[in-house]
Amino acid sequence: MEMFDLTLIWAFIIGFGIMMYVLMDGFDLGLGILYPFAPDEDARDVMMNSVAPIWDGNETWLVLGGAGLLGAFPLVYSVFLPALYIGVFLMLAGLIFRGVAFEFRFKSRRNRRWWNRAFCWGSAVAAFAQGAVVGAYIQGFPVEDFVYVGGAFDWLTPFSVLTGLGLMAGYALLGATWLILKSEGHVQDWAYKITPLLLALVLFVFAVISLWTPFINPLVRERWFGNMQLIWIFPFLALACSFLVYRSVQKRRESVPFLATIGIYVFTYLGLIVSKWPVIVPPNYTLWDAASAPESQLFLLVGMVFVIPIILAYTAWTYWVFRGKVRVGEGYH
Amino acid sequence: MELDPLVLSRLQFAFVVSFHAIFPVFTIGLASYIALLHGLFFKTQNPAWDRLSLFWTKVFAVVFGMGVVSGIVMSFQFGTNWSNFSQASSNFLGPMLSYEVVTAFFLEAAFLGVLLFGRGKVPQGVHLFAAIMVAVGTFISSFWILSANSWLHTPAGVELIDSSFHVTSWSEAIFNPSFPYRFMHMAVASFLTGGFVVAGVSAWFLLRDRDPEANRRALSMCLWLLLFLAPTQAVIGDFHGINTLEHQPTKVAAMEGHWETSTNVPLLLFAIPDQEAQTNHFEIGIPSLASLILTHSPDGEVPGITEAAPDEQPPVLIVFWAFRAMVGIGLLMIAISLTGLVLRRKGRIYNQRLFLKALVAIIPLPFAAVLAGWIVTESGRSPWLVYGMMTHAEGLTPSLTGPMALFTLIGYALVYGVVFYAGVYYLTRVVRNGMLPEEERETTDDNFKRPMRPLSAAHTPFDDDVDPVRS
Questions:
Q1: Residues 6+ apart with CB under 8 A from A94
Q2: ipTM score here?
Q3: Partners of B68 in the beta sheet?
Q4: Mind listing the pLDDT tens digit for each residue in A152-166?
Q5: CA nearest to B83 within chain A
Q6: Cβ of A312 under 8 Å from any chain B Cβ?
Q7: pLDDT of A1 over the 60 cut
Q8: What's the pLDDT at B119?
Q9: Is residue A256's pLDDT more than 90?
């Protein structure tokens, strides 16, 4: 067992799971955030139908994040969740409303407006709460002897509100570029129109967050302005991807905007990881402090090695089954 | 009154988990039924099976959706309200829940999309495969979650080091003593629930003479299944009870309302347990029957509740009456399924209106039985969270305050209230519109609400988009 550092392998798996969640549920939630701005009800049908067969699988990555943290890094689970108690409730309430809206909206007549609102507000609140979690992680938590000792609203600061809004804008961008990929006609025209605006908004918020972070976190300041100059490659690559989004929208390419937006996420995410590594429950606890017993990590790893590739394979297959454009008036099941 | 975060958290967990439980208990049975219908259609190509599977898949979609969203809450509850418990038991429960996610949830989610939206997009055989995978997923899921739950009742394969559980034997921990019984009991309960709902809805359709060919088939299948499963469940329940007597005698004593250890214990039909006085009021019972059931001998000794100190006793009144509710409904289920057999021999199951109406009326009962059963086993464990090793109070999140817990309790009650109301409303409408020929269906979509031309049902070429070739 000494040959492998199980904790490092687990850090990679959980990191991958969180990334998958953010990318996959990100575009569903983004469509929800854009919902009230859609040009008409036909466009809303297309938006919802483009994710209806896959949203459930996308959201499962969040459940894997929760269960996986409990299995591999229980300290994260047992500090983050009490610390973010109210925020977690808001996120779950949001996910509940947006989830049932998929089924209920298509079955309703008089109350369709309300399920449109449930879909939009549910997505927006869930996205905001997830962004605030990122902010709270950057800020750190008051923890004594492996137990959270702060209050109910310690996480809610101007900084975490900004990261919450930032992730909302980011998800909306993912949603818009997904819609470019999956729609045609006037719906796609609208998606092309809003993408540059959302991109500008995302870049603005991310710039403010990047400038602000070193002031609230000495570790981050040291990392970025110390001797690790190589890490500047991540923001540079994220900017390059942003430029690619802009150019490909101008050329009305269909898949490049979405893929380049994924690139923005991946490089921003890597930038965040290198800023904090290996601290996982800031300010004091590292991955190794937070880890579960080695026999538990190993027991779970054995299954994961076989099962995750299978999951990725059949998930890819379902995306392939539902490939191509979603057309106006294409029915629900 | 001071707000106690422990009481509020327990209330919240009980509420959230009960609300969640009613959906999977139905979808586990229904998923298998849908897979069976797909299989029958695939084999026989009889369109009646296809009509049934189309209808039940619509019901499944709504119920499964509500199950998914309420289930996500569960996976975060342990951390928000029970962080000390999560931290202490993570070495076992973390891998269990993670395995549930990767072996079951992803499978269900991915293939559900194909099941719901894949009609016409994938070949019929692949569609059948998707239906089977969803059904298999529901079983894998119940395997892991019931193993984790059973471990709380009969912890095994672990040792406690520095207030944290470490697994010494995975097979002993996963296949802990109460797991096989609980799993069987719950699996059969799911089939009973699914069976009674399908039977009830089919009966409702038959009362209205709607698609009699398909619904007669459905009703007949369900009644055969129930005739076999309802008595089987009683036998499994008996084994489960004897297993509980061995590992959690206090719970069984509370179920029987049996305070002092003794022999020739009566089976109480009625009593008002009084926890403070440690006795019952107004007892009516059948002599020696509890001893006979539990020890298979009329003069067998059954340990009483008072073997446990008063502060380590479960709430007897709740456990006692919840148990009676569950068993009472179980006996009623057996009676109904036997009635079905009698009527079938007379050839009257499809037109004996009183019987069909009774089947419709009891649709909620299997859900009530399942909830009552869970109340028995979960309340019967208290004050222990991990039986004999960790109490609820020890497992609570230290930073949690009363107002925080109250806020989320009210919040979940409101959210679930809205979702449940809407869900039942739309399900009722799916059923009301179910199994009707296309033209009689109420439209459910604004897009189709355009005024119907009076002759369109007769396919008269009265259109403005007349086929150019023919004209």
A1: A121, A122, A123, A124, A125, A126, A127, A129
A2: 0.90
A3: none
A4: 899 999 999 999 999
A5: A78
A6: no
A7: no
A8: 85
A9: yes
Token pair of B218 as six digits: 């459905």
Q: Tens of pLDDT along A23-66? A: 999 999 999 999 999 999 999 999 999 999 899 889 999 999 99
Mind listing the domains of chain A with CATH numbers? 7-321 (1.20.1630)
Please state which of the ranges A213-227, A292-306, B275-289 shows the lowest mean pLDDT: A213-227
Strand, coil or helix: B238: helix
Nearest CA in chain B to A104: B426
pTM of the model: 0.90
Separation between Cα atoms, residue B445 and residue B437, nearest integer Å = 17
Q: Name every chain B residue with its beta carbon within 8 A of the beta carbon of A106.
A: 444-445
- Taking residue A282's Cβ as centre, other Cβ atoms within 10 Å add up to 19
B406 CB neighbour count, 10 Å cutoff: 16
**What does residue B282 show for φ and ψ, rounded to 5 degrees?**
50, 50
Say if residue A302's pLDDT is above 70: yes
Distance CA(B100)–CA(B94), nearest Å, equals: 10
- Closest by CA position to B170, among listed B190, B149, B151, B145: B151
Q: Which two tokens stand for residue B11?
A: 């209330």
* Distance from C-alpha of B26 to C-alpha of B6, rounded to nearest angstrom: 31
Binary contact (B79, A70; C-beta < 8 A): yes
Which residues of chain B fall below pLDDT 50? Answer: 444-471
Amino acid identity of residue A237, one-letter, is L
- In chain A, which residues have their Cβ closer than 8 Å to the Cβ of B68? 56, 59, 99
CB B76 within 8 A of CB A50: no
Q: How far apart are CA B433 and CA B391, in angstroms?
A: 50
Which residue on chain B is closest to A298 by alpha carbon? B95
Whether A89 and chain B come into contact, CB under 8 Å, resolves to yes
The single residue listed with the structure tokens 């947006």 is A98
